[in-house]
Specification:
Strand content: under 5%
Order of helices and strands: HHHHHHHHHHHHHHHHHH
């Protein structure tokens, strides 16, 4: 069930109204039923995978708690808990590998075998990737690790834990929630709040604007160029890649914002997954702002267990590269995604090296950073990040290299001769898209300064709020849902 579908527009109000009408002690059961129905609308049979992951991690948590409370020696407790966590990781990651990476492994093996003229080749299998599998499996694994570390006690109520794993606003595309945040909230029923309703609906409206007005329109330009790179070369590829940076941001942050808004209406606060990432002044800063729930997951559950920065500089940089390669692989079963991740890792390794040199040789007491300094850093950071997006969007490493070669055929005149209006978006819609992007960066600029734009907006006079909200709805309906270029484009991160 897509957020930007009529089906969801009916589903959500019904779920919300009944949630607040049902007695408090049964509300979590209603949310659980609604969440499973939401997921079943994609593919009924994959509900069993969701239930399997839920059951395994629940039992693992219970067993770890029983081992901790038992009268075993400390050594046996450690061995028992390690066996539980290893079993949970093996079963959950095994499911993920089968559905997401098996064909990638087979293809890679076949290419290697062909190159060295050794070993048998294998046929790939017809496996449909279950929507959201990477998100809910990582969320469930995070829970078991939290119990293993003693950060939380295992949840005894299976149905409440099942709701934590399957909570429909963030089930299929995140954010990846921690047990210390969402599970604790789900443990107590929420009362209706008018303030939560107002802010939640506003967040949902803004999310729909990002997705349907900006992301889906930018997607037309990107698809036109990337789908016809023999015709569109040079500056066209650069422009399309810039628009892809906007598209993937608005697509994913749009989903996260709708999810946060829907959850808030019900009384639950989800993690803010994006903090004005294109205002970052370095690649490291960018990754503190982009897909925050995943970045922090890899930091806490992979980077730190590998040793983090505690085992010397070389080991630190190696850990960093490994984590970013893993992050790339999490996003997709293709070499191009791994390269995308590694480039981001290499950026940070180089940054750490340069920063060390500056600290060693530069004179202390440098002047405070000026606006122009920050602007230059933001532009350079965007260029570096945008280059990596080319590998992300290309689909394969060979395709990415072709696009890079195509950039060399540069024609600057397309920026001023109207050629950009021939990329699938008519001039009127193109101008609306540009205005929408300006509004996006204005809002993000406020957010970057620590201003809660939603709170500021809700504090305005009622006539201003109503006018602005109606205008936003009109723009979404005209240029999103029912516009000339309407297309029920799926959210990009559903494939991960």
């Amino acid at each position: 069930m897509l957020f930007n579908s009529i089906e969801f527009i009916i589903f959500f109000p019904v779920v919300t109204i009944l949630y607040f009408l049902i007695p408090k002690k049964y509300r979590y059961l209603w949310l659980l039923a609604a969440s499973y129905y939401f997921y079943m609308k994609w593919e009924v049979k994959y509900v069993f995978l969701l239930f399997f992951s839920t059951t395994i991690t629940y039992l693992c948590g219970i067993l770890i708690d029983k081992i901790n409370d038992g009268e075993l020696s400390e050594e046996k407790k450690i061995k028992g808990k390690r066996f539980c966590i290893a079993g949970s990781l093996f079963l959950n990651l095994g499911v993920l590998v089968y559905f997401k990476y098996l064909n990638f492994i087979i293809d890679t093996w076949n290419k290697i075998a062909e190159r060295v003229h050794m070993g048998p080749s294998f046929s790939t299998m017809e496996i449909l990737l279950p929507v959201g599998i990477s998100f809910y499996i990582f969320q469930a694994i995070g829970y078991t690790i939290d119990v293993y570390r003693g950060d939380i006690y295992a949840e005894r109520n299976f149905l409440k834990y099942a709701l934590f794993v399957s909570f429909f606003p963030q089930l299929v595309a995140g954010p990846i929630e921690r047990s210390k945040n969402l599970l604790r909230q789900l443990g107590s029923p929420k009362s209706f709040s008018y303030e939560n309703l107002r802010k939640g609906l506003l967040l949902m409206l803004w999310g729909y604007f990002l997705k349907m007005v900006i992301a889906d329109r930018a997607a037309i330009i990107v698809d036109t160029v990337y789908g016809n790179s023999e015709t569109f070369v040079g500056m066209y590829i650069i422009v399309a890649t810039i628009f892809f940076a906007i598209q993937i941001y608005c697509d994913f942050s749009g989903y996260s914002t709708i999810a946060r808004g829907a959850a808030l209406v019900l009384g639950y606060e989800l993690t803010d997954n994006f903090r004005a990432p294109y205002y970052a002044t370095s690649v490291k800063d960018f990754w503190r702002r982009w897909h925050i729930s995943l970045t922090s997951w890899f930091r806490d559950y992979l980077y730190i267990p590998l040793g983090g920065n505690r085992k010397g500089e070389i080991r630190k940089e190696a850990n960093l590269l490994f984590v970013f390669a893993a992050s790339g692989l999490w996003h997709g079963a293709a070499i191009s995604y791994i390269i995308w991740g590694l480039i981001n890792g290499v950026y940070q390794v180089i940054s750490d090296f340069v920063r060390a040199l500056i600290a060693k040789f530069c004179i202390a007491g440098q002047k405070a950073e000026t606006f122009s300094d920050k602007l230059l850093k933001r532009i350079l950071t965007f260029i570096l990040i945008d280059f990596t997006w080319l590998f992300f969007r290309a689909g394969s490493s060979s395709r990415a290299l072709e696009l890079i070669k195509g950039i060399r055929q540069m024609d600057w005149m397309i920026l001023i001769n109207g050629s950009l209006y021939n990329l699938g978006v008519p001039i009127g819609y193109f101008r609306v898209l540009l205005l929408a992007i300006v509004l996006l960066f204005w809002v993000d600029g406020k957010k970057n300064r620590g201003i809660d734009v939603a709170e500021r907006f809700l504090a305005q006079s009622w006539w201003f709020r109503v006018t602005a909200e109606l205008l936003l709805i009109f723009v979404i309906l005209l240029f999103g849902c029912y516009g000339e270029l309407y297309d029920t484009t799926q959210f990009i991160y559903f494939q991960f």
